[in-house]
Amino acid sequence: MTKILDKLKNIAFKLSPHLAVKMGIEFPMKSPNRVFLENAIFQYINQNFGAKSPRAACLFIGTDKRSWHYPNKLDLVLHTIDIEKKKAIYGNHQHHIVGSATELDRYYDAASFDVIIGNGLIGFGMNQPEQCDQLLKGAHALLKEDGLLVLGYNDGPDFVNFKVKQTTAYRLFDEYAPDAPGLGASTFEFGDHTFVFLKKHSGTPEISGE
Ligand SMILES: C[S@@+](CC[C@H](N)C(=O)[O-])C[C@H]1O[C@@H](n2cnc3c(N)ncnc32)[C@H](O)[C@@H]1O
Questions:
Q1: What is the SS3 assignment for 186?
Q2: Closest ligand 1 atom to 66 CA
Q3: pLDDT tens for the chain, residues 1 to 210
Q4: Most buried of the four, 39, 89, 159, 169, by CB within 10 Å?
Q5: What residue ranges line ligand 1, CB within 6 angstroms?
Q6: Which fold has domain 29-200?
Q7: Among residues 57, 125, 37, 122, which one has the least CA distance to residue 87?
Q8: Cα–Cα dist 181/69, whole Å
Q9: Domain locations in the chain?
Q10: Distance from Cα 4 to the centre of ligand 1, integer Å
Q11: CA dist 60 → 74, 152, 158 (Å)
């Protein structure tokens, strides 16, 4: 019975991930960092931003088979962007843009998002320090004053030749430790994958090139 159900789920997904989202179909991943993202992080985001009226807005950067069902997981209006046209199928149908996270301010208004999640970009395509700076500067511009940036990245030597926390634009943010079950720190390491919670820096830090 379970096998038949799995086959039907796969068929629906192959026909259209958008249809599968509407039907509430999921294929949860089991890796510890994905479980952490989909449970502790999403729960925190839903609890803190999910009840806002008008609804809070979240930008999820980079779309994939792993993340196609996130419109069902987040109680915010979910916008998605990916540089690859073929990944649009995994984005949130009416709120997806094909474009680069190095130029977010081309596509979105300033101070228009409550939450931005940039997971699996640094180390998986955005592998130059300049790209990391552009991503952080863009996220800073797009976030509302009390907005939250969740960055998930791989900056070990097997992935990139820089450290995210040493990039220039990292200074635009303060690390933030959510006061919530399963969280309580700003940075979480899962092998070579790191998550960090960031809020906009309260002052105006000087960063070169500005
Ligand atoms: C490892 S997947 C992560 C997907 C998703 N964020 C997640 O957590 O499941 C990396 C994705 O980032 C996209 N990507 C890489 N560089 C990008 C850029 N400059 N702008 C937007 N998307 C980019 C790739 O096309 C790919 O779909």
A1: coil
A2: 9
A3: 678 888 888 888 788 877 787 787 877 668 999 999 999 999 999 999 999 899 999 999 999 988 988 999 999 999 999 999 999 999 998 899 999 999 999 999 999 999 999 999 999 999 999 999 999 999 999 999 999 999 999 999 999 999 999 999 999 999 999 999 889 999 999 999 999 999 999 776 666 655
A4: 169
A5: 61-64, 66-67, 81-84, 87, 100-102, 119-121, 124-126
A6: Rossmann fold (3.40.50)
A7: 125
A8: 24
A9: 29-200
A10: 32
A11: 10, 11, 25
Q: How far is the CA of 124 from the centre of ligand 1 (A)?
A: 7
d(CA 8, CA 2): 10
As a 3-state breakdown, the chain gives helix, strand, coil percent values, each rounded to 5, of: 35, 20, 40
pTM of the shown model: 0.93
Give first-to-last CA distance, the chain, whole Å: 60
